[in-house]
Design brief:
209 residues; mainly alpha; Arc Repressor Mutant, subunit A; 2 domains; disordered C terminus; Tet_transcr_reg_TetR-rel_C_sf; transcription cis-regulatory region binding
Length: 209
Amino acid sequence: MPGKTETEAQRRERILQAAFKVALRERLEHMTIRQVAAEANLSHELVFSYFKSKDALLVALLDWLLDDLFETWEAPTTLSPRERLLELIEQDLRDACIQHNQKSLTRLELLFDYWTLSTREPEIRCRMLAGIERSRQMFLPVACSLIKAEPTRFPGVTPDTLVTLILSLIQGYTLQNILGNPIPPLTNFSLLPAPPRSSHPMTMRAARA
């Protein structure tokens, strides 16, 4: 950055952004420190001063990707538990849809590469499992609130069971898009049964009339 002095954090971020671009172009297994350094317009010695090996850079890039993924997940607390849960699901499904957001798809493709790498790299596997748990913890409080608010609709269903079902749906949807079998964007998606029509205020007023 001519004319500017980068902080350590800014330079580290620049390296990770460069690693992201190189990984998308070359895939994880073929990415090299020299390629990342060239993309970041830095010497490879300087990149090594931040990341002592390619493995260390791969782990840091995975953490960077997961942080970016989860920081976009939120639902207004003013919504009902049902509406909040559906909003979180729809946000995640929109991220996985090719037609909706190509940038998100490239990120998800890279995470899929990490899944493959995790089968033989314990540190990567540990990070991926932590990411799954992070997903569960984001959905779990809302699932608890929903089951508590509507117990008759979920007889025998625990929050853990509901979250497991939701994450399985999201992962399957994402995988189909990554593998080239795009599913149209889901609009007005509803995994959960809607309240009975008779409970709607307008319906009740009409019935009384």
